[in-house]
Write a structure and sequence with these properties.
240 residues; alpha/beta; 6-stranded mixed beta sheet; 38% helix; 27% strand; binds adenosine-5'-diphosphate; translocase
């Protein structure tokens, strides 16, 4: 497998006069768990949306393995996406929700059955495959969304506040589960959060965002022990 690397090269993004990402560069290595951490409105989601291909940068380039993402067809980008609002189809079962992206791509029935079983197993939902979303807890619904993002076995998973709607206990359990999946599958994960403790527990590296720029990037330990500015010290020191 080629060594996947994601590179944001001097990315800016403006909406009208509002510059929400400001000349930002960031490299993410294969298999890394990187959190984008910062206050609301600091540009984290916008950066993720550009990587997902849902938004275009105003300037700069995003490269995967050295190739501009705009030159890559969707399946070569090799990414799964999970949002806070799980957006499951209420009238479909768990298995049907997870199968949906495969059906859209015209995958054969036998392969769909096999992939859905495998991915439900990964997120420990085998026994709930015939239920509908309304019959599941918030944590279980979030697992379905995760399963759906993993069904193509992507190398990269983008997550935008995926645990934001869960209560504390469930959230902590899911943090461990996602981290375990990351380790087991060797996934590259880019994880948006405004929760300091979540970023500190889960990440290999944290990029602390402030007004569309990275104020500091480093290991959780380095960010926590050696904040390089008052902004980072105060933001990390805040409790939720
Ligand atoms: P974060 O994820 O850090 O909370 P966002 O990337 O969502 O920040 O937003 C950064 C800024 O960009 C905010 O001020 C937001 O209102 C603005 N913004 C995001 N998307 C749009 C859009 N489609 N049109 C106009 N402004 C937007």
């Amino acid at each position: 497998m080629a060594n996947l690397r994601i590179r944001f090269d001097r990315i800016s993004k403006s909406y009208g006069n509002l510059r929400v990402v400001d000349d930002l560069s960031l490299d993410i290595a294969e298999g890394e768990f990187v959190s984008l951490l910062g206050p609301s409105g600091s540009g984290k989601t916008t950066l993720l949306m550009m990587l997902a291909g849902f938004e275009q940068p105003s300037s700069g380039a995003i490269l995967i393995d050295g190739q501009p993402i705009n030159d890559l067809p969707a399946h070569r980008r090799d990414m799964g996406v999970v949002f806070q609002s799980y957006a499951l189809f209420p009238h479909m079962t768990v298995a049907e929700n997870v199968a949906f992206p495969l059906q859209m791509r015209g995958t054969g029935r036998a392969e769909i059955r096999e992939r859905v079983a495998r991915v439900l197993d990964m997120v420990q939902l085998q026994t709930l495959s015939d239920r509908r979303p309304a019959q599941l807890s918030g944590g279980q619904q979030q697992r379905v969304a995760l399963a759906r993002a993993l069904v193509f076995e992507p190398r990269v998973v983008l997550m935008d506040e995926p645990l934001g709607a869960l209560d504390k206990q469930l959230r902590e359990q899911m943090q461990l589960d996602i981290r375990a999946l990351h380790n087991r599958l060797g996934l590259t994960i880019v994880f948006v959060t405004h929760d300091q403790s979540e970023a500190l527990t889960m990440s290999d590296r944290i990029a602390v965002f402030n007004r569309g720029r990275i104020a500091q990037i480093g290991s959780p330990r380095a960010i926590y022990d050696e904040p390089r500015s008052r902004f980072v010290a105060e933001f990390i020191g805040e409790t939720n």
